[in-house]
Amino acid sequence: MDENLRREIILDHYQNPKNKERIEDTRYIKVNSNNESCIDNIDLYILIEDGILKDIKFQGEACAISTSSTSIMITNLIGKTIEEAKEYIRHFQAMINESDYNAELLKEGIVYSEIYKQSNRKTCALLPYEAIKKVLENYKE
Amino acid sequence: MNREDFPMLNQDIVYFDNGATTLKPKCVIDKTVEYYEKYGASSHRGDYDIAYKVDQEYENTRELVREFINARYLEEIIFTAGATEGLNLIANGFFKNLLEPNDEVLITKSEHASNVLPWFSLSKTNGIKIGYIPLDDNHYVTLENVKKAITPNTKVISLAYITNVIGDIRPIKEITKYAHEHNIFVVLDAAQSIGHIKTDVNDLDIDFMSFSAHKMCGPTGVGVLYGKKELLENVEPLLLGGGMNESFDNEKEVYYKELPMRLEAGTPNIAGVIAYGEAIKYLQNIGMNQIAEYEKKLRKYLVDKLITIPHIDIINLESDSGIVSFNITDIFSQDVAYYLNKYNICVRAGSHCAKILKKEVGVTNTIRVSLYFYNTIEEIDMLVELLSDKDKILKEML
Fold first, then answer.
1. Of the ranges B64-73, B118-127, B389-398, which one carries the lowest mean pLDDT score?
2. A63 touches chain B (CB under 8 A)
3. CA–CA separation, B41 vs B65, rounded Å?
4. Whether A27 contacts chain B with CB within 8 A
5. Contact yes or no for A64 and B398 at CB 8 A
6. Any idea which architecture B287-396 has in CATH?
7. What is the model's pTM?
8. Which residues of B touch A (CB under 8 A)?
9. Which of A69, B33, B204, B280 is deepest in the core (most CB within 10 A)?
């Protein structure tokens, strides 16, 4: 992917993040994601109905990589079934960890395909994925 | 000044994270190696020559510390692993046995976690109350506000001498005088001040003080707890074992050693303590007042430049130390730190362990530049130039 395009997409999702809004609706499952090595702090709000991720929103303070990664993740996961979402997450994690992945499936998520070059930012890109994974794995109808 | 003494500076780096830890001069590094190469025995144990040498060197540092902070007695100097350990020891070894439900400990919202969490813990175990001395518009502590915050239940005031985000120097001498008139103990967290301004415990008349060696050119893993002798006598050791016992035959006949050994159980960080002595000599050689003056000048130079950049918001415009906390409009502090890292400039981003400060200043995270005497005008010029172009930051921070 072209370096300038990659930067443009990340910056756009950082400066104009999609689905960034605080949710009070109790039907949403709230999960916080932060990690020890960085100061990012993001809350995800996930609405699951009939096994489908009907809506996802997020709120919080985080760096450009975490914020944009969250915005892109949410955009790509809304409307997916739980299994499809898990599949997406698996491929995203594989990409970050330099394994084989399906680029087509990840859509804009591939802007982080070279983040492994800055190992201290890998956790930033993965931050929202770790959080939503926990919710999906523990989710019971 | 004195840049040639610091091997780390031979690399192409600009080090602005002195609030976290300072660099070590060659003499401190050499002394560490000297111990391991020439007399690497245990302390206070052996009857052979090199063990005797260890004791001499180890106790020599104690005397250097005593002189450095102008304590009255050697027994008032307890070696710890760092400022955090000292504060925990005081809270749990002294105040836990003294404070009763509803007794109050006063701190502020700008304290470091190490001067917050041990007290929070006593609120659980002892039912004490935590009170906050209000900060003024510059986030400073004033004697007036201390007076207002004190209640009949106040038993302890525990403050940083210099705080790690705002960098204000507190009027400790005045606070202590007033506190003592009201039978209130004063505990001083000197982690951020000890390497930057002259400290005189006698003049300040504080009851306890804790600090780390590594924030004053010394090694990591060494700290000092100072306490007035008559108070330290009543500190219950939290660590029991070798080095601190006089004798024991059975559980009913256990005798502990006198101060300072009673509070230094186990084999200490011998190399660290010995090398720490060199750090103290090194700083004294330069002169603490000269260090403070230089830092102040450097800070003013930095602030005067940053203030002209419209997209920079300085959190602590006024401050007496070398700490400058700021943010760049609409850019997360950590991204700025990553950007500067690309130019080998080391700054800190985050809440700096002062997590209850956010409500006070209204921002959670900041970029922090903390200066020391080996920083230069040229380094600041480089930083300012890199920060002055917001488009460049946005372009290069990813």
1. B389-398
2. yes
3. 22
4. no
5. yes
6. Alpha-Beta Complex (3.90)
7. 0.89
8. 330-335, 338, 349-351, 364-365, 394-395, 397-398
9. A69
